[in-house]
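Table S2 (continued). Query chain:
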Amino acid sequence: MDNIKELVNRFILDPNNADVLAVVKAARNGAVYGAKVRFPHALVMVFLFRVREKIHLILRATRQHSRNLAVFATLYKTICLVLRRTSPTGKERRYDTFVAGLLGAYVVFGRGAQSSVNQQISIYVFARVVLALAKLAVQPGGLVPTDVKGRVAANAWPVFASVSWAFVMYLYRWHPETLQPSLKSSMKYIYSNADTWDGFRNFLIHNQ
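Corresponding output:
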C-alpha cells in the first residue's frame, strides 16, 4: 500500500504531468463546487414552493449544476492548455482565457434548450461581470474621465440597485411570464400573497 501511495504521489508531483492533471482537478473542482452551491439552493426553493417530488428535483438540479461546471472547467482548462502550447512563445497570451471561456461556455451553456439551472448560472456570472467592468471603468486608464470618477463611484451602486429593482418590479407586475420561475415564485410569495388573507393565521403566522 505504501508503494502505491508513493507512486501516486510521484506521478501527481511530476511537473511533466502538471498540465493534464490541472484539467482533471478542474473537472473535480467544478463538480464539487456545483454540488455545494446547487444543493442548498435547490433544497430551499423546493421546500418553499414545490412540495411534491422534493428529493427528485433536488438531486436532478444538483446533478445538472455539478455536471455542467465540471464539463465547463474541463473544456476551459483544456483549451487554455492547447492555446498556450500552440502559442509562438509557448506562454499564455492575454486573451487565451477569454477565448477558452467563450468556447467552453458555448458548448456547455449556450447550445440547445436552456434549463433553469443553466440560466441561473449564466445570469449569476453576468451580474458579476457587469459589476467588475464597472469597477474597471473608474480605475486609472478606464473609460470614465478623471474629473467625474468620484461622482460615478459614489452613485454607481445606488443607480444600479435602484434601476434593477425598478425593472424587476415593473416586469413582475406587467410581464410576469418573462421572469424566471424561481424569481417569479419568490416575488409571488412576497408581494402577491401579501394582498390576500382571511384571518390572523394566514395574515401573520402563515403566508397562505
